[in-house]
Amino acid sequence: MIENVVAAPILLPLVGSAITLVVRRWPAVQRLVSLLCLSLMVAVAGWLTWSADVNGPTVLWLGAWPEQLGIVMVADRLSAVLLLISAIVSLLVMLFSLGQDLQERRRETPMSIFHPTFLLLTAGVANAFLTGDLFNLFVGFEILLFASYVLLTLGGTGERIRAGSTYVIVSIVSSLLFLVAIAAVYGATGTVMLAELAVRLAELPDHVQLVIHLLLLVVFGIKAAVFPMSAWLPDSYPTAPGPVTAVFAGLLTKVGVYAIIRTETVLFPDSDLGPGLMVVALLTMLIGILGAVAQSEIKRMLSFTLVSHIGYMIFGVALASEAGLAGAIFYTIHHITIQSTLFLVTGLIERRGGSTSLNELGGLMAMSPALAVLFFVPAMNLAGIPPLSGFIGKVGLLQAGVETGRPLEIAVVAVALATSLLTLLAMAKVWNRAFWRKVPDIVEGTSDQSPRARGRGMPRSMVLTAGAMVLVGLALSVVAGPLYDYAVRTATDQLAGAYVTAVGVNR
Q1: Residue 449's beta-bridge partner residues?
Q2: Residue 158 CB contacts under 8 Å (≥ 6 apart), including other chains
Q3: Nearest alpha carbon to residue 435 among 360, 372, 345, 357
Q4: Is the previous residue joined to 228 through a cis bond, with omega within 30 degrees of 0?
Q5: Peptide bond before 387: cis, by omega within 30 degrees of 0?
Q6: Residue 282 pLDDT grade (very low, low, confident, very high; cuts 50, 70, 90)
Q7: In the predicted model, what is the mean pLDDT of residues 353-373?
Q8: What is the DSSP string of 241-307?
Q9: pLDDT (tens digit, 9 = 90+) per residue, 227-256?
Q10: 383-391 long-range CB contacts below 8 Å, 24 or more apart?
Q11: Is 382 in contact with 319 (CB distance < 8 Å)?
Q12: How many CA atoms lie within 13 A of 334 on its CB side?
């Protein structure tokens, strides 16, 4: 049956993970299996996206259980398009990792561990996007978190173990809170299926709804790294290997954003917490970008900009309007691609310049003009320079905020504009110090070699893969009109209760 295809994006990487673990002694076979599984995942996600837009959501009830009792998987416009862009990014990050030389692979991404764990991570992300069940969403989070623990500490260095410890502690706390929230939901309603909860939660007393709503927002806020629950991210992500950091930056926080969108549109569509979310969005933008501007290490700077730009997505959700939600969805798609691209390019900067510290870099423009282009294009996209997709997404969000005419929304719009300018300042700081200034002969105050002497060559396959990521970002700008229309249709579905109707529950 055609609906069985919905399970494929989860089963493909799960089966691939098992196979790559079995054939761990044959790296070439591992590479082939990983690329095949991820390529098929992209194809299936593309079909699901097309089908959701043309034919409506595809719904699969697992295990032959009677409907309303079993676990349901739903590929609607929102979950399908996020699955597609995540699968594309995962495939390109995998290709990038294969360009590392043998010694580097053994140290940074050991084949016997990296491939099974990476595929397991993509399976967890796919499960989180497609599930229509709150407990299965928890399972999806745990799968991707388990895999991320391993990927974050690859190589076993002291710095990575320390960062991994912080990440593990924060994740365990959020998982425990999630279990508490699930228990509260089930105790109050007798179900954990999202579509049924849309009906039953509305029948609860207001104070019970508020407690459950806040619990879920705290859990998903930790996972999305919104302020004040974002301090763990800049300390954790920069220590991981380049390919791992890229996929973390692109995907993991967006799963949290996706869960917040579902919470606000399916479970609590008439919530009064919009102003609170608006304040959270404002603080997330502001604190994140101030942290980014203060950094002199590129990975930490990008980690802070990651936090900051999550605020744009939360702002769109908090507006609770079709225009705001469409802007948030478009910006999420854009940000998955651009943030992953910048972290991949940073990996190339580290290879060519021997460091990611702006105090130790210089002259990369003269040393590698191709690398300069690979950084410049996504950096300008992140800053929102027209006519790139970052500009289009921000304009949509800001216009939606201004149209409300309310003081709080106008204040967030002002902070969003300032955040965009400060993002440009941060990217210009990297450009001026790492690319534009001349190559230092030796790092001031040290006996270290210059970047020209410290750096290594960049494998062609890694440069081509990073270039492909840049092209994907540019493609989002080229098709921004149709993609934004898709985001508007998606937002309309979410606010009209199409998700609940598709699963077969009447409001």
Answers
A1: 442
A2: none
A3: 372
A4: yes
A5: yes
A6: very high
A7: 85
A8: -HHHHHHIIIIIHHHHHHHHHHIIIII-TT-S-HHHHHHHHHHHHHHHHHHHHT--BHHHHHHHHHH
A9: 888 887 887 777 777 788 888 888 888 999
A10: 383/420, 383/423, 383/424, 383/427, 384/420, 384/423, 384/424, 385/424, 387/477, 388/473, 388/474, 388/477, 389/330, 389/334, 389/338, 389/473, 389/476, 389/477, 389/480, 390/334, 390/338
A11: no
A12: 34
Contact 258, 78 (CB under 8 A): yes
Which pair of structure tokens corresponds to residue 367?
């040393």
325, 261 contact by CB (below 8 A): yes
pLDDT band at 93 (very low <50, low <70, confident <90, very high): very high
- pLDDT tens sequence across 192-204: 888 888 889 888 8
Residue 262 has a pLDDT of 92
363 located within any domain: yes
Q: Is the pLDDT of residue 144 over 50?
A: yes
Q: What's the domain range around 307?
A: 273-441+449-498
Taking each helix axis from N to C end, the angle separating 322-353 and 480-496, rounded to the nearest 10 degrees, works out to 130
Rounded to whole angstroms, the Cα distance separating 105 from 215 reads 41
Instruction: Please report whether residue 31 resides in a domain.
Output: no
By three-state DSSP, how is residue 230 classified? coil
505 pLDDT above the threshold of 70: no
Q: Is the pLDDT of residue 463 over 80?
A: yes
Is residue 337, in this structure, part of any structural domain at all?
A: yes
Pairwise CA distance, residues 56 & 344, whole Å:
35
pLDDT at residue 97 is higher than 70 = yes
Residue 24 pLDDT > 90, yes or no? Answer: no
For the chain, the domain total comes to 1
The answer for residues whose C-beta is within 8 angstroms of residue 364's C-beta and 6 or more apart is: 349, 352, 353, 371, 372, 434, 435, 451
Position 90, amino acid: S
Nearest to 319 by CA among 398, 224, 218: 398
98 or 179: which leads in pLDDT: 179
* Amino acid (1-letter code) at residue 273: L
- What average pLDDT does the chain have? 86
Distance CA 244, CA 152 (A): 7
Cα-based distances in Å from 97 to 296, 418, 449: 26, 36, 27
How is residue 116 written in tokens?
């099974």
Q: Retrieve residue 369's tokens.
A: 């003009």
C-alpha–C-alpha distance, residues 357 and 346, integer Å: 11
pLDDT in tens, 341-351: 999 999 888 88
Residue 397, in any domain of the structure: yes
- Span 415-434, mean pLDDT? 93
Mean per-residue pLDDT, 472-489? 93
Q: In the 3-class helix/strand/coil scheme, how is 308-366 assigned residue by residue? A: HHHHHHHHHHHHCCHHHHHHHHHHHHHHHHHHHHHHHHHHHHHHHHCCCECCCCCCHHH
